[in-house]
């Protein structure tokens, strides 16, 4: 059980770090931060601290590839994950790099309390008050702070917003509750478009936020390097998001708002094997979104195939660049 709990907090590292039959500590990116992962693949990287109105410092990473005025894109991670998900794979398989190569100004957000956003003006992570927030606070404070910071920094009037799971929940809440913020969004791309956990199926998901420290990563890396345990670690991700192992490259291994009020053009991609956001949840959500410009459903996809799936670039990543240009 202890191994299970620790592995959950590091699910994204398992997808990137554990190779079938290989020792996980051989992966040079095992203990890198997001900037390190970006530099490792040969891309320029910048990192900013964005202060929210409720006192949290959010770490926001940027891939400022190329020169000149380019459309900014903000990518926001899912529940219990972080912005590193978007640069975990090789450049031709990671959405962050694909967007940068397509000429976009890529900004990767980290919401309050995740691995890279654990600082506050007056509170420490050891105080329970630090963790006294919900999806609502993340939507009402984190999203506008990141959007406004990016637009002020780039001099642009609008940006593209890409969310995964919880990242979509925050967008739905923020853009329906704050029309002035919604006006700053060109298009909203919703991957695994989660709004509630009403239909959740995964047996592990009900475990809330867990700490993610270098010490725990070291323990996990050593434990999962054991040949007898590596298979358990490798399959941990499927206990959360649903089973679709053939599509995982193992070598690279709320507050309810009136979302009907959101007028932002929205494109959605969902999966039939998604235990976190099953098809009934997607159907429930689609009924309430008033400006859907595209919806595509992949029956064989689970919750994490949107960024770790081997066929994600062909199925959706390049679609994102198409819709953002038209």
Automatic annotation (TrEMBL):
Pfam families: Abhydro_lipase. The keyword Glycoprotein applies. It comes from the Eukaryota. Residues 38-89 form the Partial AB-hydrolase lipase domain. Transmembrane segments: none annotated. InterPro entries: AB_hydrolase_fold, AB_hydrolase_lipase. Keywords: Glycoprotein, Hydrolase, Lipid degradation, Lipid metabolism, Signal. Residues 1-17 form the signal peptide. SUPFAM superfamilies: alpha/beta-Hydrolases. One of its GO terms (biological process) is lipid catabolic process. One of its GO terms (molecular function) is hydrolase activity. Belongs to the AB hydrolase superfamily. Lipase family. This is Partial AB-hydrolase lipase domain-containing protein.
